[in-house]
């Protein structure tokens, strides 16, 4: 995950190891939940989360009683309440190069890696 300010300047980047074999929707949901927790720890109040899994974004943005949510999706919806403004948008992986590079790096990690100055991509 990578965090940027409103001008696009990088605030920080994190690579989180994961040893489980999940489908892309589950992986993206877990990464989003971790990003939301990290944003909360940083004290950010107005956030936009860019996600490269359209299914996750559509499910999170679906309103009404007909929405079908997993436990993870409902957990993310609950975390949304920690922010004054919070939205989820879809971005294609090709537009999310740094985040994708961090995800590839995370495969070989044993612990969370945090970058504040030098970034791997």
TrEMBL record:
Residues forming the RNase H type-1 domain are 1-106
Concerning InterPro entries, the annotation shows:
RNase_H-like_dom_plant, RNase_H-like_EbsB-rel, RNaseH-like_sf, RNaseH_domain, RNaseH_sf
Q: Tell me, what's a Pfam family for it?
A: RVT_3
The family database entries (SUPFAM superfamilies) matched by this protein are listed as: Ribonuclease H-like (SSF53098)
Spell out the protein name for this chain.
Answer: RNase H type-1 domain-containing protein
Q: What organism is the protein native to?
A: Coffea arabica (Arabian coffee)
